[in-house]
Specification:
Layout lengths: L9 H10 L1 H11 L7 H7 L4 E5 L2 E4 L4 E4 L2 H4 L8 H13 L12 H13 L8 E7 L2 H18 L7 E5 L8 H6 L3 H4 L9 E4 L4 H4 L6 H19 L4 E6 L15 H12 L2 E5 L14 H4 L5 E4 L11 E6 H10 L13 H16 L2 H20 L5 E7 L2 E6 L15 H11 L2 E2 L1 E3 L2 E4 L7 H24 L5
Parallel strand pairs: 3-13, 5-6, 5-7, 7-8, 8-9
Antiparallel strand pairs: 1-2, 2-3, 4-10, 9-10, 11-12, 12-15, 14-15
Helix pairs in contact: 5-15, 6-15, 7-14, 11-12, 16-18, 17-18
The protein binds pyridoxal-5'-phosphate (PLP).
Length: about 475
């Protein structure tokens, strides 16, 4: 097998890969254990080898150009090929590639980024975010949250407040705490999860959980009150926090009714429990705001971020720590025995600063809020008329379609048919990356996507939906 391509310079690798996809696939299957992948399947079918990218497009090793409607994994907000970000990493690597931030040591990019994030985080209801804890991922940040909220209640003399409430079908990461906070049954089934003192309520998914004839507004209130019922059943004095994504991402882009978040806020305030807004997907312009809590009128105490903070160019995550927690933990807590080698990594922080500067210069957040986001919603609304589409929703730059067997009755397909995966395969064949969550087809495009590119993407989506209809008809699953 030709392994020389793996040690060649990048330009040569690109050319060699185009000739040698099978060699790479064989090495990949032999040596690389991938996240969320069935390796039996990988060995038979081989990975898609992505070799390079520009703007909103990626190319594979067979030189297919693919429109990436998922921004990598909800993260390449500034789009691919941004030289400013590469330059920032290079400059910082040549100046100070690493130094730790433990034991009363700091570095300039980490301080500058913490200051910048504190300035960007909107103040709501008198609550401010003046402090940041850095990690390298969303999962690590949510592990930090678990330790931080329990430490907070310990310091307040209420150590019995341990329980963290989350929601079914939520995604909060893949570490022990992250996967436990998440509400994915498939993840809980592997590794004896959830860990103790984490429990879940139902998600605010109107299509699945509303009663016949119930309005969205009424459903939003009823769904929020599941939290109240849960708190009362546990005992409010035992509950530390409620964690949720403003819009559930990996669960299939579940956008709650507008009544949901205000009612959740009322409930957490009534019981005095902490609110954690997991904005790993939703922050940094994804919903048309630097932080999504502002859009929904939430007043969180902690905000998880990652992904878009560096547009995915380098790993960085963290927690915005609101005044309520900071005043106890930072001002009175003594040493917090928690931290990661790469907390405040200077190169990651330098890239984040360059990314935020770029997003400000190009006005990307406002563009999504006022122009391209509403346009995407308008174009998605048109897809609702497609014979395969039961529901179509968009919020900022995330959107989802539910594929149904019968449009009039909204009857779902047999899950074993894998209609979502069928549609996803048509997307790849037609040069489009869309994600399937069951039979929900979802997107989260790069924020640099223009109106013309939205048109191009919607035309591709329509073509893939048509191809899925044809395939379903051919196998007798649609009339
Ligand atoms: C809302 C949310 N929280 C946490 C995570 C975990 O982030 P990471 O994969 O960086 O650990 C994700 C990842 O998709 C996420 O969507």
């Amino acid at each position: 097998m030709n392994t020389s391509i793996l040690i060649a310079p990048p330009a040569l690798v690109r050319r060699a890969e185009q000739q040698d996809t099978q060699a790479i696939q064989a090495l990949d299957s032999a040596h690389f254990i991938h996240p969320f992948t069935d390796h039996g399947d990988l060995a038979t079918r081989g990975s898609r080898v992505i070799t390079h990218a520009d703007n909103i497009y990626v190319w594979d090793s067979e030189d297919h150009k693919i429109l990436d409607a998922m921004s990598g994994l909800w993260c390449v907000n500034a789009g691919y090929g941004r030289k400013e970000l590469a330059d920032a990493a290079y400059q910082q690597m040549m100046t100070l590639p690493f130094y730790n931030t433990f034991f009363q040591t700091t570095n300039v990019p980490a301080v500058q980024l913490a200051t910048k994030l504190a300035a960007l985080a909107p103040k709501v209801g008198g609550r401010r975010f003046e402090h940041v804890f850095f990690s390298s991922s969303g999962s690590e940040s949510n592990d930090t949250n678990v330790r931080m909220v329990r430490r907070y209640w310990d310091l307040l003399g209420q150590p019995q407040r341990k329980v963290i409430i989350s929601r079914n079908n939520a995604y909060h990461g893949s570490t022990m705490a992250g996967a436990s906070l998440g509400g994915m049954s498939g993840m809980h089934a592997q590794g004896d999860l959830p860990i103790p003192n984490i429990t879940h309520i139902e998600q605010p998914y109107f299509f699945e959980n509303a009663l016949p004839g119930e309005s969205e507004a009424d459903f939003g209130l009823r769904a929020a009150r599941w939290l109240d019922e849960k708190i009362l059943s546990i005992g409010a004095d035992k509950v530390a926090a409620f964690i949720a994504e403003p819009v559930q991402g990996a669960g299939g882009v579940i956008i709650p009714p507008s009544t949901y978040w205000p009612e959740i806020q009322r409930i957490v305030d009534k019981h005095g429990i902490l609110l954690i807004s997991d904005e790993v997907i939703c922050a940094f312009g994804r919903l048309g705001h630097w932080f999504a809590y502002e859009k929904f009128g939430m007043r969180p105490d902690l905000v998880t971020f990652a992904k878009g903070v560096t547009s995915g160019y380098i790993p960085l995550g963290g927690v915005m720590v609101g005044d309520r927690v900071a005043q106890v933990l930072v001002d009175k807590g003594g040493e917090f025995n928690h931290g990661y080698t790469y907390s405040g990594h200077p190169v990651a922080c330098a890239v984040a600063l360059a990314n935020i500067e770029l997003m400000e210069r190009e006005n990307l957040v406002v563009q999504v809020r006022d122009d391209t986001g509403p346009y995407l919603a308008e174009r998605f609304e048109e897809l609702r008329h497609h014979p395969l589409v039961g529901t179509a929703e968009a919020c900022g730059f995330v959107a989802g379609l539910l594929l149904v067997k019968n449009k009039a009755t909204r009857e779902l397909f047999d899950p074993d048919l894998g209609v979502g995966m069928m549609c996803r395969a048509h997307c790849f064949r037609n040069g489009l990356i869309m994600r399937a969550v069951g039979d929900r087809m979802i997107i989260a495009p790069p924020l640099v996507m223009t109106r013309a590119q939205i048109d191009e993407m919607v035309a591709l989506i329509r073509r893939c939906l048509d191809a899925t209809v044809d395939e379903l008809r051919a196998v007798g699953q649609l009339g």
